Amino acid sequence: MTNYLLNRNSSNSVICKAPMPQVMTNNRPQFVSARIFASLSVLVLILLSGSGCSTSGGHSPTAANTYTNPVYAADVPDPSVRRIGKDYYVFGTTGNQRLADGRIFSLLRSHDLVHWESLGGALIPPSDNPHYQYWAPEITENQGRYYLYYAQGDTAPEHFVIRVATSNQPQGPYTDSGAVLQDCETNRFTIDPYPFRDDDGKWYLFYARDFPSESSGRHAGTGIAADRLDEMTRLGCDRQVVVRAANDWTLFESNRWMGVFQQTFNWHTIEAPCVVKHDGKYYCFYSGANWQTPRYGVDYVVAEHPLGPYTGAGDHARVLHGLPGEVRGPGGASIVTGTDGKTQYLVYHAWNRPMTQRQLCVDRLDWTPAGPRATPTVSPQPMP
Q1: Which of 137, 244, 265, 350 could crosslink 223 through cysteines, CB 3.0-4.6 Å?
Q2: How many Å apart are CA 207 and CA 292, to the nearest integer?
Q3: 203-261: per-residue pLDDT in tens?
């Protein structure tokens, strides 16, 4: 999930300041506004593009073999990364805003995960309604065609659905297919889609949805489910729960009034799934807690099959967490292999110091005896 405005440079300093409205309410519109503010930064970036504000990556000319986070000095909330051929592509949320080319979802390209260029927008808007929201784009490829999964919110309260767009090339433009991937159970809020292809060629879709009730030690809140993809634009209606919030660190907000349910909750949040297979097991990484707080970070669960059952959720953000005074709210992580073809990296967003934007960051993912781990960095690191 997301919030932001704009500004930063490759040396981890803010160079083009623009204040962001700070919002914290007890109902869901706050959650939507987080994405709206995120999208406003894209507009600011467009306006500032001719004003001398740099958006270059975090690569120091005096240290040719190192880089420093953030690697892209513009807002890229909910970054989704894929390597296609020799290039890396990152897609980011734009809320209800349009880029200069009239499209939605910011799109970047890189050869090394550090130097990024903007390719404009990825998706041709499927609606003319300026109030519709567009969140969490995620692309994949199947048989030479590229599929962009994303969440669209309309003007009805709490109503987000997952849609699919297609293109013949990774950089788009993508055109909406008209398909809506409905959760098998009635649910007004489905977001953060993540398509996953197993080694046997079968496809699955992971996504976040609301669970507005407590059950077997699980808190009310947003959690993650998975289903088969019988076709690239059709779910198999075999939904399984991947992970729900059971630990205190995932609290989004206490006593949160949810108008659509006409009820107050101690609402917990688990979102932004990213799935990889490692040593024969399936790891579903996720972000948890409130994106504004130091508790926000990345954890995981593990299973023997893509549809679970998944176990092993941590009592804190074990994979990636903030560093006091240095890194706040790292999350929305994607995982990709580096240019050496073997080392894996987390590509994620984190707040700048004044909390006016989320910046694109890259750090190595290590598979340790205790599980996958990464450390957010602000000092020079070896190039991927």
Answers
A1: 244
A2: 22
A3: 999 999 999 999 888 999 999 999 999 999 999 999 999 999 999 999 999 999 999 99
Question: How far is residue 74 from each of residues 278, 317, 352, 357, measured CA to CA in Å?
Answer: 32, 26, 11, 8
Query: Exposure of 64 by Cβ count < 10 A (0-12 exposed, 13-18 middle, 19+ buried)?
Result: exposed
Structure tokens at 217: 């030690």
User: How many other C-beta atoms can be found within 10 angstroms of the C-beta atom of residue 358?
Assistant: 32
Contact call for residues 72 and 6 (beta carbons, < 8 A): no
Report pLDDT for 187.
Answer: 85
**Structural domain boundaries in the chain:** 29-382
Segments of the chain with pLDDT less than 70: 1-63
CATH topology for 29-382?
Answer: Tachylectin-2; Chain A (2.115.10)
Q: Residue 248: what are its φ and ψ, rounded to 5°? A: -65, -30
Amino acid 76 reads: V
* Structure tokens given for 373: 């781990």
What pLDDT does residue 13 have? 33
Peptide bond into 21 cis (omega under 30): no
